Amino acid sequence: MSAKKQLYEGKAKIVYATDDPEILLTYFKDDATAFNAQKRGQIVGKGEINCIISSHLFQMLAHQGIPNHFIDCPVPNQMRVWALRIIPLEVVVRNIAAGSLCQQTGLALGTVLKQPLVEFYYKNDALGDPLLTRDRLLLLELATPEQLEDLQKLALQINHHLSDFFRQCGITLVDFKLEFGINHQQQLLLGDEISPDTCRLWDNTETDPNQRVLDKDRFRRDLGQVEQAYQQVLERVLSLTGSR
Ligand code: UDP
């Protein structure tokens, strides 16, 4: 398999074409951004860590019957994936109030939600990824009503499996972001990554609200020990999956 043309460079990944039009190669970068790229930096080793964590989570989800784009991880910071036409939506699932939910609703940080909340944001940097209503999403034809129902259902199933997995790692899954796309066979697949960049993860062995943070909030909020937190998540994931 030879990597060829660069198709796209995003904030955290570069996507390359391969000899097979149905297969892409994604390269995970150490670059970190926050607040719509107003804050930039590097998290040393992040590319490898996020690629390996994502690979294990995608494989776990595939075993649970959640279709996703993961093929394999030929080198620690590179993932081969099925080519998708990405739906321009950020599907956020929340179990505990944090981040923009607190800022926009006044809910206190750490409030346990009675049931998981699924939200759709418009994946559009120029507009600042705004929160969408169902009607706006349909107005913009970002998904069909049927796709919307499938996305909602898949997001809740993924939340169930991920929450369970992280619980076994001694970690609380506070919230996370998913992206989906359509493959060459017109099937809806989970894409992108699932990592401390895209999830809020709290260490169950810590009660201090800053100490417990094991995700990108350490970078966003200048909490320090960013690399160590990502490494901690990787080690716990590997100790549960028992490989690499
Ligand atoms: N998230 C993400 N990419 C984004 C926006 C959010 O991965 O562009 C993740 C974020 O890490 C968190 C969840 O989605 O786990 C909810 O984020 P929120 O809406 O609270 O926004 P934030 O506070 O991160 O701006």
Describe this structure in words.
By secondary structure, this protein is an alpha+beta fold. Strand 2 and strand 3 form a beta hairpin. The chain folds into 2 domains: 80 residues, 2-Layer Sandwich (Phosphorylase Kinase, domain 1); 139 residues, D-amino Acid Aminotransferase, Chain A, domain 1, CATH 3.30.470.20. The model has no long low-confidence stretch (mean pLDDT 96). It starts with 5 loop residues before the first strand and ends with a helix. The chain has 6 helices and 14 strands. Helix 1 runs parallel beside helix 6. It is globular and about 50 Å long. The site of uridine-5'-diphosphate has 14 residues, from strand 9, helix 2, strand 11 and strand 14.
Main β sheet profile: 5 strands, antiparallel
Strand order of the largest sheet: 1-2-3-7-6
- Give the distance, in angstroms, between the N- and C-terminal Cα atoms: 22 Å
Radius of gyration over all CA atoms, rounded? 17 Å
Q: What's the total count of β strands?
A: 14
How many DSSP helices? 6
And the CATH topology of the largest domain? D-amino Acid Aminotransferase, Chain A, domain 1
SSE topology string: EEEEEHEEEEHEHHEEEEHH
For the record, what is the CATH homologous superfamily label of the largest domain?
Answer: ATP-grasp fold, B domain
- Outline: globular
- Domain unit count: 2
Proportion of residues in helical segments: 25-40%
Bound molecules: uridine-5'-diphosphate
Low-confidence stretches: none
- Counting helices, strands and paired strands, the structural category is alpha+beta
Bin the strand percentage.
Answer: 25-35%
Which architecture of the largest domain does the CATH hierarchy give at level 2?
2-Layer Sandwich
Average of per-residue pLDDT values: 96
CATH class of the largest domain: Alpha Beta
